[in-house]
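Researcher: Go.
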Amino acid sequence: MKRFLSVVCCLLVAWVAGAQPATDFGKRHQVRIGWGDAFFENYAFAKTTPHIYPTPEALPENFSIHERYKTACTGHLFAEYGYRFTKLVRVGAQVDAEGIFWQEGDFDRHHQLIGTGKWVRNFNIVVMPTVRLEYLHKHIVTLYSGAGAGVLFALDNAGGFELAPALNINLVGVQLGCGHWSGSVDLGLMSALSGGNKIYMLGSRLLSFSLNYAW
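Model: Structure:
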């Protein structure tokens, strides 16, 4: 938690340091709608390898094994608003959401489902302030890096609800376009964990794409 508070303080310092009136730095407001990968979630919640036995008759009649199957993940869907304070600094806020789904149940020795499976639906929603440093403007290309720190809201269809600190780091981003519309590709990572015991995301959203509108 101390590290998390330190990151938030650094973001606030960057905000204050950049809080100078913009003059002729182009359009001040920008809205981004995008999608990011969920490599970590797809790996952590992958379907179980089916347990197919060459001689199932050798197993007890009441044998059963629990498996996860029919897995799916939406990836990270995010929306962000940013305001340009200076030619270098843009601050704003972002909402990131994803859904992770699978079905699970018990299988007998012949790998036949016993009864009916149960659907498990998990939702991760992250709300965070963001800061972005746009250090290169040339023609239709803008290069930038940034970070965000906020709160993860974790929910599931069993009524579970938990909070955890979340951090998103954008190591480098490339924006292409001029006028009102542009597109971006970001390389970075998003993580959220609680006390080191519960890991919701760890190095997720390594690659993100967005469509941007500025005015």
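Model: Residues 11-24 have pLDDT under 50 and may be disordered.
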